[in-house]
Amino acid sequence: MIPFHSNSRQHDALSQELGKALGSIDLKDDTAFAHTVEEFEGRLADYCQVDSAVAVASGTDALIIALRALDAPPGAEVITCDFGFYATAASIIMAGFTPVFVDVAPDRMVMDLDAVRNAISPKTAAIVPVHLFGEAIDMSVLQQIAEQYSITIVEDVAQALGARSAGQLVGSFGTASGISFNWSKHLSSFSNGGAVLTNDQEIAGRLRSLRGHGNAGSFRHTRMGLNSRLNPFEAALLSAKLPHLDAWIARRREIAARYTRNFASSPNVVTPAATEAEEHVYHKYTIRVPDRDGLRKHLADHGVGTLVCYPWLLHDQPAFEGQALRAHSFDRAAEVAAEVISIPVYPELTDAEVDFISETIVSYVESAA
């Protein structure tokens, strides 16, 4: 069996380091929990090359808090991509804003920046670029658009920690940026966690207030915040894992390159189209095939786990009915959603497993053609 994702091999390899990190928390020291989280925040900010990292309970909370910290007017429009995970759009709504959905770029799975420009209205307050599956959006172009129209950028880096756009780490472009440490992410906690990145000290202060019920001190609450704090045991785990992240990303890129070579002779397998391999961290290796559901069953029959990310466009989610706007067409996004299938890419996979998965896919696609 090759599961779609598993942390078991990673945790086995790091068992001594993780045990030491968790055991280092002094349960008799009331300040130890806060210190453990603060220490992780400092290490994360250094890694991401930003001034501040504010740890919270989840990646969803990170986006909600990041958006609320903007102090934009209630109901303002926030542009994001129609293809992606539910939490991005849900966070926009839960922050009090209206999501506006745009199509994916040609031959890609991230937002079309021309469509973003066309979706801007007088009510637009922010753009949320999602670096989906670990692929960095061209942030230099997006920054030009945002500056031209005086719009704020809040990056969704849930799946792209360590990715770069034109050499600069994603998460360092936006006024604020949300990260997820969900157990499935390539820097993962045992269960959940998140953080907001920023280079703006005023925003950082708002973020810290918002994660603690909007507290301004002495039980005076000046904002509608959340109760959203990172568990210190998760912080200790993440601090122990962070020094390994670049090596894990390098291995993900090796696996992705191996898949791409293995699929090169199969025209019915469309592989990820990153502009620069070194800018993609391959949180997911997502391909497109004509018979996605048939292939998924075939792989399951051969012991290979897969995931469909994502079968529904966001404007079709029942939860968003009447609360969201779709800008212009979504034809490319609909085609992508009908064909995508994500296959295992975690760094502990062996080359033999990668080749077995590749061969199983190619044999099915060629026989079904």
Q: What can be said about this structure in brief?
A:
By secondary structure, this protein is α/β, with parallel strands linked by helices. The chain is built from 13 helices and 12 strands.
Q: Total helix count?
A: 13
* Secondary structure category: alpha/beta
Percent strand: 5-15%
Number of DSSP strand runs: 12
Distance between the termini: 27 Å
Q: What low-confidence regions span 5 or more consecutive residues with pLDDT below 50?
A: none
Which value, in Å, is the CA radius of gyration? 21 Å
Shape, principal axes of CA atoms = globular
Instruction: Report strand order across the widest sheet.
Output: 1-9-8-5-4-2-3-11
- The helix content, as a percent range, equals 25-40%
Mean pLDDT: 95
- Sketch the major β-sheet: 8 strands, mixed
The helix/strand series, from N terminus to C terminus, equals HHHEHEHEHEHEEEEEHHHEHEHEH
Describe this structure in words.
The chain is an alpha/beta fold and about 375 residues long. It has 13 helices and twelve strands. The protein has an eight-stranded mixed beta sheet with strand order 1-9-8-5-4-2-3-11, sandwiched between helices. A two-stranded antiparallel ribbon has the order 6-7. It is globular. The model has no long low-confidence stretch (mean pLDDT about 95).
Summarize this structure as a short list of keywords or feature phrases.
alpha/beta; 13 helices; 369 residues
What is this structure's SSE topology?
Layout: H1 8-13, H2 15-23, H3 32-48, E1 52-56, H4 59-68, E2 77-81, H5 86-94, E3 98-102, H6 113-119, E4 124-127, H7 139-149, E5 152-156, E6 164-165, E7 168-169, E8 176-180, E9 194-198, H8 201-210, H9 232-241, H10 245-263, E10 285-288, H11 292-301, E11 325-326, H12 331-339, E12 340-343, H13 351-368
Parallel strand pairs: 2-3, 2-4, 3-11, 4-5, 5-8
Antiparallel strand pairs: 1-9, 6-7, 8-9, 10-12
Helix pairs in contact: 2-9, 3-9, 4-5, 10-13
